[in-house]
User: What shape does this take?
Amino acid sequence: MALRAIRTEEDPVLRKICKPVTDFNSHIHTLLDDLRDTLIDSGGVGLAAPQVGVLRRVVVVMDISREDLPPEEQIIELINPVIIAQEGEQCGAEGCLSIPEKYGVVTRPESVTVSAFDRNGNKFEVSGSSLTARAFCHEIDHLDGKLYIDIAERMLTDEELQELYSQDEDVSE
Assistant: This one.
């Protein structure tokens, strides 16, 4: 497997609509494996194919509710994902690997259910809440050429970012 370069917000590929996957072949398997490795290496929560320059409807998301497992086993692979149900509302800081060191306040559903295909073309549904639901929504937006900055109520100030980073340090200690 390989680590792929993560595209940043100036790259026009991030504003394009991705094509559905119709062939569940070795190219898609390699893409999924590379997305997984790149996501784990980045320390992020989700990664979409356009973020590595591939215009296909493929995303990977970390299921943080399974933090007792190694990172490789926390990955949820979604091909041609569609949100089929959502409930509640959460509002909080959201960032993106393609927009480093910036965060905005974004409102998302508290829980979502996604219908998707696995790497072998089998259809399944998966539900997530909290950060996992936020990640599902965020990554599926990428497949439609949307970035969180398009829907952010506001961007966080440098002081708010400093506070956010210090809270992260407090939590990890």
About this structure: The CA atoms of residues 65 and 132 lie 8 Å apart. Residues 169-173 have pLDDT under 50 and may be disordered. DSSP finds four helices and eight strands in the chain.
